[in-house]
């Protein structure tokens, strides 16, 4: 008899979310705790192990009842090894074989992957990408990344890091220095994490604005944009421009026609994505259908995607 339960874990920069799923894919129970951004690999993993055991115990289960645990993180991960190379939001979790560490201590199958890949799988199977043969999931929040679905499967690339569209170069050697140690990547033109710096630069260029680097975030930016704030208009249009160009480049490379957008900035609705789609269409001169869609699964997208990796 197959083991009926799966745990999906979404370990983000601010919180770690857990979902216990039954064999019908329904969430039986869930847990959540803040992310310890200062933890190293073993300490971070030990907290996951403790929480998994508590979740199982409170549902009268053991690891013997699990088909496995899927874990997704905002990290560069060597997928075949299960090794976390770099995690920007948890700088001490690096060069660590987390899969082996967890597998040994929990005695169950562990699949470890990037968070965008997990979200892509969730949206393809249960969300806005249902029915599509190929799909790109794009997360636009603190950072920018994507997960690539080809023929219904996640495309990992040679080293498990496919889909890092945020680190493609838009303006070589110009612009804000990124954590990837390059200047001019899309990450620094589009994402929420760079809004304060872009506001600071815009003010230095002479743009009038109610925004300040200390208070600027995605919500304040869109609010100022809607009120006609000159700097906000400039920044939103610039962000949309670079997102449209980035997606056009991805489309030219992969010829995938379905794009599903999630993350905090995508949730600002038509203000942002309509502008980005207009930019995309400006460069796309071949009249085949291309779909820009909003993600449908909300805050559970991560735990659903992590669980789907085991399935």
Mean pLDDT figure: 93
* Class of secondary structure makeup: alpha/beta
CATH architecture descriptor text of the largest domain: 2-Layer Sandwich
How many domains? The number is: 2
- Choose one word for the global shape: globular
User: What characterizes the major β-sheet?
Assistant: 5 strands, mixed
Helicity, in percent? 25-40%
- State the low-pLDDT regions, or none: none
Kindly describe this structure.
With 311 residues, the chain is α/β, with parallel strands linked by helices. It folds into two domains: 5-121 and 300-310, 2-Layer Sandwich (Nucleotidyltransferase, domain 5); 131-295, Nucleotidyltransferase, domain 5, CATH 3.30.420.40. The protein has nine helices and 13 strands. It has helices at 41-58, 98-106, 115-126, 187-190, 195-204, 218-226, 230-254, 270-283, 301-310, and strands spanning 5-11, 15-21, 27-34, 66-73, 75-78, 83-87, 96-97, 110-114, 135-140, 144-150, 153-154, 258-262, 291-294. Strands 3-2-1-4-8 form a five-stranded mixed beta sheet. α1 runs parallel beside α2 and α3 (115-126) packs across α9. The chain is globular, with a radius of gyration of 20 Å. The model has no long low-confidence stretch (mean pLDDT 93).
């Amino acid at each position: 008899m197959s083991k009926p339960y799966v745990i999906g874990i979404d370990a983000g920069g601010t919180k770690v979310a857990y979902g216990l799923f039954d064999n019908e894919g329904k969430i039986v129970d869930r847990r959540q705790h803040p992310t310890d951004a200062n933890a190293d690999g073993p300490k971070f993993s030990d907290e996951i192990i403790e929480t998994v055991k508590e979740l199982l115990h409170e549902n009268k289960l053991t690891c013997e009842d699990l088909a496995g645990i899927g874990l997704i993180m905002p990290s560069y991960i060597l997928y075949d090894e299960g090794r976390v190379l770099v995690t920007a939001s948890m700088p001490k979790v690096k060069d660590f074989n987390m899969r082996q560490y967890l597998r040994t201590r929990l005695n169950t199958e562990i699949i470890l992957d990037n968070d965008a890949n997990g979200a892509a799988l969730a949206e393809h199977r249960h969300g806005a990408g249902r029915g599509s043969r190929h799909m790109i999931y794009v997360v636009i929040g603190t950072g920018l990344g994507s997960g690539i679905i080809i023929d219904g499967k996640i495309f990992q690339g040679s080293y498990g890091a496919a889909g890092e569209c945020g680190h493609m170069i838009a303006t070589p050697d110009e612009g804000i220095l990124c954590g990837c140690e390059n200047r001019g990547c899309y990450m620094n033109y589009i994402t929420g994490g760079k809004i304060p710096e872009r506001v600071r630069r815009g003010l230095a260029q002479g743009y009038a604005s109610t925004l300040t680097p200390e208070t600027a975030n995605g919500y304040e930016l869109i609010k100022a944009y809607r009120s006609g704030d000159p700097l906000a208009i400039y920044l939103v249009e610039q962000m949309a421009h670079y997102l449209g160009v980035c997606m056009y480049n991805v489309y030219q490379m992969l010829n995938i026609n379905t794009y599903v957008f999630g993350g905090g900035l995508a949730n600002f609705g038509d203000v942002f994505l309509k502008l980005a789609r207009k930019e995309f269409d400006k460069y796309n001169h071949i009249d085949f259908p291309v779909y820009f869609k909003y993600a449908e699964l909300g805050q559970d997208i991560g735990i659903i995607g992590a669980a789907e990796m085991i399935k």
